[in-house]
Amino acid sequence: MGNLKAVEDGQPETGTAQLMAGLGRAARAAAHALSLASAETKNHAIRKAAEEIRARAADILAANARDMAAARANGAAGAFLDRLALDGTRVEAMAKGLDEIAALPDPVGRVLARFERPNGLLIERVATPLGVIGVIYESRPAVTADAGALCLKAGNAAILRGGSESFFSARTIHECLAAGLADAGLPEAAITLVPVRDRAAVGEMLAGLGGSLDVIVPRGGKSLVARVQAEARVPVFAHLEGIVHVFIHRDADLEKAKAIVLNAKLRRTGICGAAETLLVDRACASTHLAPLVKMLLDSGCTVRGDDETRAVDARVEPASEADWRTEYLDAIISVRAVDGLDEAIAHIETFGSHHTDCIVTEDEAAAERFLKEVDSAIVMHNASTQFADGGEFGFGAEIGIATGRMHARGPVGLEQLTSFKYRVHGNGQIRP
What kind and span of H or E run contains 176? Predict the structure, then answer.
């Protein structure tokens, strides 16, 4: 694939199209081997990779410092830098995530259904790997570990294309995954990191690598995901935006609401589960709106509100129509007063992105109606929207969040990275 300098400069000795086609063929061959690999073998590779990440933490942090320096020099925003940055705690979390994936039950070979027909045929529906999964991501270097390990555990080969801004971080993390594969005797192409920065590599993946790719998962900003959804010739698991709402119902406990809203918005502003719009029931606005707005402002969050919200605090900026459709990924939130549950649901349906939405209320009937009628991949009652995460769901990790309605929805974990086939057992039956 070319010498190190050539790879770093994004100028491989062979053309990008030929390079990517070769990666696709190798991954397809590796996928067959993985589909036959035992759970013990796959788990060994993942645990060894976790060991390597811990042993090479200093190398990973040095590579990340190199990426961070370049990003700062290019004027990257604070939220972007937060997604890119690694420290000792995040590196350990990455390794722990791999250990958790290894500890999960193997999803391949599960009998999903078994039934017998009147003619004596026994039919089983059995979980199988998807095949070769392409993951295109931007600033988050930890996706390298999560995506690679999840695909491997589910018996899939992975082709990972990280962003140029996380090039050195991703490469060092991938070296740890490769060490795990080698130690377990699995093919190197089981987890491939595209070794060039050439943007044409993304186009080759969207075209399907000559039939080698079975599904693509984009992890990144709106422009990347929009391009993937528009151009991909293979199925896509993705969400375009995380326009996440928290609705404070008239029967919400104020202290509970304050804790949930503060965490949902400001714990980490740059993740897709961060709240972007706060809706407050007019029936409780006299007691709840001002304290919630003041709390956000005092915590350093910019608030853009409607007329009622602006009236409770002079620091509130006017909200435009565009604000209700904006995923800020920053310490900014739009706030609006609504006439009860009906208007809240209508607002979410009009402006939301079907990602994650939450109701805060002590009224169980209102909560049940919200959970039933809001058509989002994840709907919550009295919990921070920042729990919209595969790890928090007990999936070990996630390869992304999907908001479509076909196959995968919500956090895409091990189960969503499998398909199924039917096994039919007979005893000489023929069809009349």
Answer: helix 167-184
Amino acid letter for position 263: N
Q: Which helix (H) or strand (E) holds 272?
A: none
Domain residue spans of the chain: 4-237+412-423, 244-387
Homologous superfamily of the 244-387 domain (CATH): Aldehyde Dehydrogenase; Chain A, domain 2 (3.40.309.10)
Out of 3.40.640.10, 3.30.420.40, 3.40.605.10, 3.40.50.150, select the CATH number for domain 4-237+412-423: 3.40.605.10
Band of residue 14 on the pLDDT scale cut at 50, 70, 90: low
What's the mean pLDDT when you consider all of the chain?
93
Is 142:68 a contact under the CB 8 Å cutoff?
no
Does the pLDDT at position 8 exceed 50? no
CB proximity list for 111: less than 8 A, separation 6 or greater: 124, 125, 126
Q: Rounded to 10 degrees, what is the CA torsion of 350, 354, 357, 359?
A: 60
pLDDT digits (tens, 9 = 90+) for 263-306: 999 999 988 999 999 999 999 999 999 999 999 999 999 999 99
User: In terms of C-beta density within 10 A (0-12 exposed, 13-18 middle, 19 or more buried), how is residue 155 classed?
Assistant: buried
Instruction: Read off the pTM.
Output: 0.85
Q: How many CA atoms lie within 13 A of 119 on its CB side?
A: 11
